[in-house]
Amino acid sequence: MDLTRFHEAQRYAYQSALTEIRNGKKCSCWMWYIFPQIAGLGRSSTAQYYAIANLEEAIAYRNDDILGGRLIEISKALLELESDDAYVIFGSPDNMKLKSSMTLFALADPDQEVFQKVLDKFFHGERDRKTIQLVSKNGNIK
């Protein structure tokens, strides 16, 4: 799996993204490569470029020391916030991108509880149906 596009994008944006989350408000554009989604959801060229092709690539992303570590770190930062309103933190449609990303990684790494905890806190535990459909369409759900 070639995850270079994520490493390159995060090189200069990750610390800013983490700071924004810790401050409780996303202000700049980094959602695609910090909280990536399964392919088939985003329509823009940027969304398509950073889309995760399938569950196998999501597992590779999660298992990457840097990318996976950052995803857990920034997800835990969300759990530390007082607010449980993803719309207040991310705005629209990024609040729904968070839901789809957390659903994808909860499927990719069911043993890592942080992704489901984010879904529990911000979305009453509900997973994104379209993400589940797209992942299962490829026969990838474990």
Automatic annotation (TrEMBL):
Entry-linked InterPro entries: DUF1810 (IPR014937), Rv1873-like_sf (IPR036287)
Pfam families the record matches: DUF1810
Name this polypeptide is given: DUF1810 domain-containing protein
Species: Candidatus Fimimorpha faecalis
